[in-house]
Amino acid sequence: MRTDYDKVALECFCSNCDRLIYTGLDLRGYRRSVVNSYSEQVRAISGKCPECKTDSFIIPIVYSKSSVGRVT
Ligand SMILES: [Zn+2]
After folding, report:
1. Domain membership flag for residue 70
2. N or C end of the chain: which has fewer CB within 10 A?
3. pTM attached to this predicted model
4. Could you tell me the distance, in angstroms and rounded to a whole number, from the CA of residue 4 to the centre of ligand 1?
5. How far apart are CA 46 and CA 37, in angstroms?
6. Domain span at 56
7. 10: three-class secondary structure by DSSP
């Protein structure tokens, strides 16, 4: 099994499960979602919860260039 160097581990919140869930996201997909959602107002993007399979998953947007990479 290869190292998951292209995964980013994030602490997400599911409003349906009402708890924090750590999840590993594909870094390239995550970056793309962040870029698509980018605005001054947006601090998080929604996704599908791995636990309850609903779209109540709130994924924080991390703008740190060192951890996520360039957002251009
Ligand atoms: Zn959930």
Report:
1. no
2. N
3. 0.71
4. 24
5. 10
6. 7-60
7. strand
Domain count, the chain: 1
19 C-alpha to ligand 1 centroid (Å): 8
What distance in angstroms lies between residue 72's CA and the mean position of ligand 1's atoms? 31
Q: What is the 36 CA–ligand 1 centroid distance (Å)?
A: 23
Please spell the DSSP secondary structure of 11-56, one letter per residue.
Answer: EEEETTTTEEEEEEEEHHHHHHHHHHH-SSS--EEEE--TTT-SS-
- Does any domain span residue 27? yes
Distance 71 CA to ligand 1 centre (A): 28
| C-alpha count within 13 angstroms, C-beta hemisphere, residue 25 | 26
Q: What are the φ and ψ backbone dihedral angles of 28, each rounded to 5 degrees?
A: -70, -40
